[in-house]
Design brief:
The complex is a heterodimer. In chain A, 57% of the residues lie in helices and 10% in strands. Chain A has an eight-stranded mixed beta sheet with strand order 2-3-5-4-6-9-7-8, sandwiched between helices. In chain A, strands 1-11-10 form a three-stranded antiparallel beta sheet. In chain A, helix 3 packs across helix 13 and helix 12 crosses helix 13. The longest helix of chain A is centred in the C-terminal third of the chain and has 25 residues. In chain B, 68% of the residues lie in helices and 1% in strands. Chain B is built from 21 helices and two strands. Chain B has a two-stranded antiparallel sheet. In chain B, strand 1 and strand 2 form a beta hairpin. In chain B, helix 5 packs antiparallel against helix 7, helix 7 packs antiparallel against helix 19 and helix 11 packs antiparallel against helix 18. Classes of the chains: A alpha/beta, B mainly alpha. At the A-B interface, helix 19 and helix 22 of A face helix 20 of B. Chain B: Belongs to the PIGU family.
């Protein structure tokens, strides 16, 4: 756009297109624009709890609470009997087989189809190409796994009298058969009583699947193993499956016989159509006393995916308005007491009051306490989405596009008190029954409500249309600053810089321009090489993790050492990193363009990661300037810029940032270099896209930042 | 003149890189990406068609295969030969690597022809200082390397599609016309048209190439030059004849054009005969036209791709469908004539513009089409050196090519997005191509204007 202006005399400027002129205007005021946009972006982010709207049920077919619950005291008694049975078996040897068998027996007792699903714990491996493939890899069975580690899920299916067997609702209760606790037994009992009730009702239009998941290897593993087998049929010719069977028979041949005798076909995998929704049930005894029974909802699945908001809405509606439970979602506790957040809350409260006095139709009425709580909830919501690791076994369902939530019920008294235990079970049972009844009414998949949202309270949400504004404002300066070196005034300065360096240059104007318009290619080469280096760093853990018997600290040191030597090699290939044809301004603009593309992409894959990353990357991109070029400005500004740059350079590097954050929260004594390795391993085991972001967007951006800072 | 260091090393590296990639088809799984494989070019569909044909059924049965019957005979046997430990379609992929190499070499040869002509005409216009001053690059080498190392080309080559063959034929036609080999040009044009229909519009630049010779500054400049300096400089043009009076006029020579047309009709008859032999008893030519060219023109398959037509025709009411089919297909034809008049002195560049336009407006576009026109764009590196928005276009192409798979994943696999998400990237891609075409054409015209300014001053 600048070229046009340069080629024509001043009168000709008016002739260029309006959009080009607007762009040029923005670019010429890029410092002002970027400061304003960044501040606006941060303010918009802080205002999100104020802008949150009340949730509403948008799918009409759900009709929550339209029917009276049929779950009665008799069902509670049944649950109690089952719990007692389970607790009695606790002392018997070999509960690992006994309890699934017992559950299976009870399931069959209410007329359900029963089978057992055996699985090996999925061995998590680093596989760089599997980050986005939701179709799971079929060959996960490791032939060298030990035979002892086999889990057994017991599954019961109630066929709906009014259904066509094409849809199902899944109920999951994770428990550990080797060490069953009272709370787990209670959750099993609750699920069983609901299951037996549903076996009798006539309104059922979707099959009910109850998965009693063996959680001895973790809750997620068993559920995901079952889901994988559910969605990708394994034929008996395949060796892996056979191995499990053979292995199991070898291991506990006699125990197993007793089950298979009772029901023929107890090992054949049965299915029940596509899943409309899944509920993971847990009972947890809380330490602190509370005035009412409470329900905690966990919804975050892998890579920041959320279930459809309608599912959370009906749970919340039924829990609050029918059963009188106290509904909670996770918050970050330390934020609740933080002074600065409270002071922001005060300001926001005053502003809201002021806004309301201007126009009473603006319903931004929020008290300081509400604001603090909303922010803490929003922060935790963002944190769990950003890490990209599911908060429970419901995450496994989201990989198959099934909406699922974990419902964690906790009573307000001790679980041992039998009287109030019955009341608690009654409430829980009615809630689950109501939710299942609503989902049973569904005609289509959940699609009406939001998939992309944050919760600031159980009944308040921020939709994608609102939170994207904050993000867009934050990254809006990036493209503007990126094109600045190509625009009018800066362009002239660039070419005069060049003229000073090589005074003997006597090209005509046009030729100067023709070279100039492609000069960014040199800088692009540097940026490309740095990104290539980042890809190498990204893949290194795969090779390092192959080395046996290596401690996290050593792994981390090896990783860093290889990464730095790779960087040196890259520099050797590039020749001198600071060659004269690669100007820092162009390098900065290409770096910003790359960061912009990366952040934009990440905001689609996992918004929270992008939002948190942008808070670090955007200042880095905007502030960067070679340290030696600061002489032009006044002393105090220079000192301030230097300080900012140094802080950013330290905080921007992923390991340092993690270690400092960890040190601040847990004390520096317990922080070691290996922590970063452990954390990175955690991320890639869960196929978190945050790992990719960290190494493909953040790391190259930081490396280029340091590169430009050290530019002569 | 800046030379490209170790050109052959880069070429060898590009080929080695492709061969490395085709050893991991399972991990990349590019053949199932809608951006790479279209219903017309997918090799998996070709294998299906071949299987049907082996079972003595029409390869077009079941709306799976929509390519040429000749490809079926050539590539079909390779799709089933498979030796131990080698990935599927290994031999086909190897063939596509060779095809890419040949295409690159043809682009290089075309570039050298263009450079030669450019130097001659600039020398004739006494503007050789311009050549030296502007840091000239060897267009042929540069363009072939751009073609070989373009990620889009690599993806097309590795992604088991037949698009590399379509591209080869289009380039072959341009090369043949540039070097005045009418039979070769006719062959390339006929086969390219037969394979994917849209290269039919290349007939305009091909005729101009054969008639006028490769790209040169506008004719008026030569006339001006002759008027001012009454023909003192020696003429070295390949197709212009300097008459005794020294006035040099670029005659439009009809002989090669007629040759071309004759050969084109011979080749098309030949192709039709071969096709009918290949389809004997399995449906015949009529079905072939209906299922290949008819399939292209009527936009039957509405599965998502990076174009914009699928979304539109999925939304449009049935009774308007025919009307909009006519509108969209005419859209390409409307632009032919004005461009041909304005750029008649630069037929190769005209061919590039045509290919870019058709890749933007065609019914089943893929990244293979962009690979072709971006490769040809390299041929005009010297003329387009002053192009605006180059940085913007570069970032845009990178952004869109990364965004497209992510949006597709969001829509198809995660279920949190919808068709609009993916269509948005399609629109962004079309906008980018529009900006590229507009900017490159205006830069070319500006370059011609600059030449005139240098001559007049």
């Amino acid at each position: 756009m600048a070229l046009e202006e340069e080629q024509k005399p001043k009168g000709g400027v008016a002739r260029s297109r309006l959009i080009v002129r607007l762009g040029a205007f923005l670019v010429s005021h890029n410092v002002f624009v970027s400061v304003v946009c960044c501040i606006a972006g941060i303010i918009a982010l802080l205002l999100l709890p104020v802008l949150a709207k009340n949730t509403y049920i948008s799918e009409n077919a759900l009709m929550p609470g339209s029917a009276n619950p049929a779950f009665s005291a008799q069902d509670v008694m049944e649950a109690n009997r089952f719990v007692k049975d389970l607790i009695d078996r606790r002392t018997i040897e070999g509960t690992g087989i006994e309890i699934p068998r017992l559950i299976g027996q009870h399931m069959a007792g209410v007329g359900a189809e029963v089978y057992y699903h055996k699985f090996w714990p999925h061995k998590n491996q680093f596989h760089p190409l599997h980050f986005f493939s939701c179709a799971p890899n079929t060959v996960t069975m490791q032939s060298n796994s030990s035979c002892a580690s086999v889990g057994v899920n017991s599954i019961g299916i109630i066929r709906a009298p009014r259904g066509d067997g094409k849809e199902a609702i899944v109920l999951v209760t994770p428990y550990n058969p080797w060490k069953i606790e009272l709370s787990e037994a209670l959750s099993l009992g609750l699920a069983f009583s609901i299951f037996s009730l549903l076996g009798q009702v006539s309104w059922l239009a979707k099959d009910i699947v109850w998965l009693a998941a063996d959680s001895q290897f973790g809750e997620y593993t068993s559920v995901s193993a079952w889901l994988k087998d559910y969605h990708s049929p394994v034929f008996f010719s395949e060796s892996g499956k056979m191995n499990v069977d053979m292995c199991y028979e070898y291991n506990s041949h006699q125990d197993w016989d007793r089950i298979t005798v009772n029901w023929a076909n107890a090992n054949a995998f049965k299915r029940a159509g596509t899943m409309a929704a899944a509920l993971v049930l847990k009972v947890l005894e809380k330490k602190e006393r509370q005035e009412r029974d409470s329900l905690t909802i966990y919804a975050e699945a892998s890579n920041g995916q959320m279930p459809n908001l309608d599912l959370i809405n009906i749970v919340h509606y039924l829990a609050v308005h029918r059963q009188g439970l106290r509904v909670k979602i996770a918050t970050i506790g330390s934020l609740l007491n933080s002074v600065w957040l409270r002071s922001i809350g005060e300001i926001v409260q005053r502003l809201c009051r002021f806004a309301k006095s201007l126009d009473p139709r603006w319903k931004y009425d929020i008290t300081s306490a509400d604001y603090v709580e909303g922010s803490a909830t929003l922060a935790s919501s963002m944190y769990y989405q950003a890490i990209g690791v599911p908060t429970g076994s419901h995450g496994a369902f989201r990989d198959y596009q099934v909406d699922a939530v974990t419902l964690e019920l906790s009573p307000w008294f001790s679980l041992k008190n039998e009287n109030s235990q019955s009341a608690f079970l009654l409430r829980g049972g009615r809630l689950i029954e109501g939710v299942i009844r609503s989902v049973n009414n569904l005609l289509e998949k959940f699609h009406q409500s939001f998939f992309l949202y944050f919760l600031t309270a159980p009944n308040k949400f921020v939709s994608v249309g609102v939170y994207m504004i904050a993000f867009a404002l934050l990254i809006a300066p990036l493209p503007i600053v990126a094109v600045a070196p190509f625009s009018g005034k800066n362009k002239i300065r660039l070419s005069t810089d060049k003229g000073n360096q090589r005074p003997g240059n006597t090209c005509t104007d046009e030729i100067e321009i023709t070279i100039g318009s492609w000069k960014w290619l040199h800088a692009a080469k540097v940026v490309f090489m740095i990104h290539l280096w980042a890809v190498i760093v990204l893949l290194l853990p795969y090779f390092i993790s192959q080395i046996p018997y290596i401690s996290p600290t050593t792994s981390m040191l090896v990783w860093v050492a290889v990464a730095i030597s790779a960087l040196l090699i890259v520099y050797l290939i590039l020749g001198s990193p600071y060659s004269s044809d690669c100007e820092w301004a162009l390098l900065k603009s290409i770096m910003i363009a790359a960061a912009f593309i990366g952040l934009g992409l990440m905001s689609i894959i996992n918004f929270s990661t992008a939002q948190i990353g942008a808070l670090i990357v955007v200042p880095m991109c905007l502030m960067v300037r070679p340290l030696k070029r600061h002489k032009e400005v006044a002393l105090c500004t220079r000192v301030m810029l230097m300080a900012c740059n140094l802080v950013l350079a330290v905080m921007g590097s992923p390991p340092a940032a993690l270690l400092i954050l960890k040190g601040l929260s847990e004390g520096f004594g317990r922080v070691g270099i290996g922590d970063f390795w452990v954390w990175a391993e955690f991320l890639w085991i869960w196929n978190s896209a945050t790992y990719l972001y960290l190494f493909l967007v953040h790391l190259p951006c930081w490396a280029l930042y340091v590169h430009i800072l050290l530019h002569p | 003149m800046t030379r490209i260091r170790c050109y052959w090393g880069w070429v060898a590296a590009a080929i080695a890189f492709r061969i490395l990639l085709i050893c991991f088809p399972k991990n990349l799984n590019l053949g199932s990406r809608p951006e790479v494989a279209t219903p017309l070019t997918s090799l998996r569909r070709l294998a299906e068609g071949y299987w049907l044909k082996q079972a003595s059924m029409s390869p077009y049965a079941g709306s799976m295969y929509h390519g040429s019957p000749l490809l079926l005979s050539i590539l079909g046997p390779f799709t089933i030969t498979r030796s131990e430990g080698q990935p599927a379609y290994f031999y086909c992929s190897l063939m596509f690597v060779i095809v890419d190499f040949v295409t690159a070499m043809l682009i290089r040869a075309t570039g050298q022809k263009l450079m030669l002509k450019c130097h001659q005409s600039l020398q004739f216009l006494n503007l050789s200082k311009l050549v030296e001053a502007s840091g000239n690059v060897e267009a042929g080498n540069f363009a072939s390397l751009v073609f070989l190392w373009n990620p889009l080309t690599i993806v097309t080559c590795v992604g088991s599609t037949t698009a590399p063959i379509d591209n080869l034929m289009a380039v072959l036609a341009i090369y043949g016309a540039c070097s005045c080999l009418a039979p070769l040009a006719a062959f390339g044009w006929v086969i390219a048209t037969h394979l994917s229909l849209y290269p039919a519009i290349l007939i305009v630049p091909l005729i101009l190439l054969l008639g006028h010779g490769p790209d040169a500054p506008p004719l008026k400049l030569f006339q001006q030059k002759n008027n001012s300096a009454s023909g003192s400089s020696p003429s070295s043009h390949s197709h212009t004849k300097s008459t005794q009076t020294g006035i040099q006029i670029d005659y439009f020579s009809w002989r090669p054009v007629l040759h071309f047309l004759l050969w084109a009709s011979i080749w098309s008859c030949y192709v039709l005969v071969l096709s009918s032999i290949s389809l004997k008893g399995l449906g015949g030519l009529l079905e072939m036209f209906k299922k290949t060219h008819g399939f292209i023109l009527t936009v039957v398959d509405l599965s998502p791709n990076i174009g914009v037509l699928w979304y539109f025709f999925a939304e449009v009411f049935d009774f308007f469908r025919n009307f909009f089919l006519i509108v969209f297909n005419m859209n390409i034809l409307f632009m032919l004539l004005p461009l041909a008049i304005r750029l008649k002195h630069r037929p190769c560049f005209l061919a590039f513009v045509y290919l870019a336009i058709s890749s933007m407006l065609k019914s089943y576009p893929s990244v293979g089409d962009s690979a072709l026109y971006l490769g040809l764009l390299g041929l005009f590196a010297n003329e387009l050196a002053g192009m605006q928005f180059s940085f913007f276009l570069f970032c845009g192409y990178i952004g869109v090519s990364l965004l497209s798979p992510v949006m597709h994943n969001l829509w198809i696999w995660r279920g949190t997005g919808n068709a609009n998400f993916y269509f948005a990237t399609g629109i962004a891609y079309a906008c980018l191509q529009t900006v590229l075409i507009v900017e490159s054409v205006s830069t070319m015209l500006k370059y011609d204007r600059m030449l005139r300014k240098h001559i007049t001053t």
